[in-house]
Amino acid sequence: MVSLKEVGWLLFAAVMLVSCGGAxxxxxxxxxxxxxxxxxxxxxxxxxxxxxxxxxxxxxxSDQQTASIKPVLKNTDAGIYYVLSNAxxxxxxxxxxxxxxxxxxxxxxxxxxxxxxxxSKSNTTLSxxxxxxxxxxxxxxxxxxxxxxxxxxxxxxTLSPSFETEVYEYTAxxxxxxxxxxxxxxxxxxxxxxxxxxxxAAPGEIFYAGLEPGENRINTFVVAGDGQREVRxxxxxxxxxxxxxxLNTNALLxxxxxxxxxxxxxxxxxxxxxxxxxxxxxxLITAIPEVDGVAMAINDRDLVSGEPISIPIESDDDAxxxxxxxxxxxxxxxxxLYLNYLxxxxxxxxxSEELQFALQNANPNDEIVVAPGYYYGVAGLSSSGNExxxxxxxxxxxxxxRIYLSAEDADEDTVLFGDNDEDSIAFLLEGNYWQVSGIxxxxxxxxxxxxxxxxxxxxxIEVSDTEQAFLITGGSSYNEIVASHFTAVSSQExxxxxxxxxxxxxxxSRGNELxxxxxxxxxxxxxxxxxxxxxxxLIESNRFDTSAVQQVxxxxxxxxxxxxxxNTFYASNNxxxxxxxxxEQLDSGGDMWGENxxxxxxxxxxxxxxxxxxxxxxxxxxxxxxxxxKTRTALQEDYRNAVYQxxxxxxxxxxxxxxxxxxxxxxxxxxGIDSTDTAEFVVIRACSESESQIWQLEIADDYYVYLKNxxxxxxxxxxxxxxxxxxxxxxxxxxxxxxxxxxxxxYAQHWALLQNDSDEIFLSNRQNSDYGLTVAxxxxxxxxxxxxxxxxxARRQAFKLELID
Length: 805
Fold this sequence. Notes:
The chain is mainly beta. It is built from 3 helices and 74 strands.
């Protein structure tokens, strides 16, 4: 890895790139305006975003072979040229000008259109990227290969005839000693959908299967992107019949299964790993050899072909060893099952009844994994365990042993449905210390209800098509709702709050947090309602949208000690002056609520200049500071201070929270600064009280913040060197350093704080969200630079925020 002094030139290059149209664009005089004012594709305007140059993805009709493009520049004196790239060719145009219309030819699949805006005087260039996607009408494979391994060497299985895209029937022959194959394919078009048998396979995916003596037919189906054409490639692989000598020396298994586990068994694969629940005492194992009559044993216990045998295990057992001995006794195969003991007790469910049973019987440290699919629950004491809830639990975990409810695959639909009757609930939780993630809740009066439920965490969930997405009642406290999406039904007759903390005179709801969520209200109902008896609520880094004209405040609070910060509010484009946040005092049982509310560093995105961000006439000690209002496309110089309404709003100035950023892997190391003659680099330091290790968050945009270092007044903002995607070939050799500078326009200083299940954060850079803050090198050593590198779930990319009082 290069030293910090050796990368000083990168910072010089970064400054030079700014003057040459690189991003982020620092605002200085004499830089020409090169932005697109608009662009039409086939007569339809593309929704351009301020500061975003691509990639804009545009869907085209499958039979559309050309597209007309009309770019209009803000600076009509600048010139334009374009480059179109697709599977067949790359074409570059001559210079054209603002308002000119040109046509491009489209191939099936992706067509990448780069538009370059040029200022001839300064030789400055800005590029926009558009992907014009035309669904394929042709289905096929451009490549199909089969292989086997012999004595450690990979050999290709010869197909007859040789593979061609438009030939669909093949045969192949292999020796008896070849008991399995593996294969790969490439679709003719990127959007072709390929299935091996009944399983959809991704491009580049390796598939494999065992071979029995005789014919083994493998069918591969390909569907065109428009779904109208399907072809089948059929390959018959003939495995030779065995000789008597081969039967006597064969000690291979034909199959091996462990009840409750997926082994992906192959005859010549001898090592397997099982993730075993921490309370497992036995494994049920079934083995079938290729040759009847061979001897099989596990830990000195004999196995009978095809008959399950229960093998006891203990927590200190590392592995189970299965030995197969050939008929003549001279050959053996050893299959080893390595045991990896989980920290949880995992249960996989595949239908509503299994899920309802698991929820009602969950214990601390249990993990309920829900397979992809649609789960229709029925409320009732004999089914879900509750008269109103389709899915219900009153079980509790502990601080050190939570109960986990999670989707097996967060990328596939895993949806829990209620029955949409009056007072129906999709999921009612009356227990403590749960973590729920990756699941959707749908089609009920209330999506999720917490009743007397404490210290639960909801992460990456979605609630939609409900009158109310989330309800906290019964004094439920210290719950976290993070990185989730809530949408109410669109009917204007629905006035129930999207998210509500319900007043309960018998109990106070304390310390609940809503962070980094997307809340889409219907305009007729408030997005978040905090009733009296709500205390110490944190509403942070959320995005608020409305699907219709906003008629009520998006946040309506009678709670006390509430903090509302770093949120972005997208008000509907109507001309009324409905406030965005309303806070009022309320007498509840003789106690006054609506006190000590702090509202700062929020953004209001609205063309209505007089709409108040905060309104209050009766709240006690309501402080508002550093809140900004702007239109969707405003530049920073056009931002305006938010409007406040009502005599109870106090405009104050106070410091935002301060943090140390500790390494998740080494709690004694923190993110700090190394000052050199050329720059202040961001490095790893032993944690201390130094101001150079103190960071503040400043809102940048939806979910994004600036990271601001306390030790530098003039250049406090953290960013990676421009071109960081080119400077991180590997973490060990990365020169994509990060450093402190003044505030620049563009995305390179914008960071998203992505949180995992362990309260660790990963810092994603908005310039390229696949890259994040990373400890460089191969060891965690003081002075090691922080760089921007692709996310890889590496421990070098995991941090923890420590709040400094």
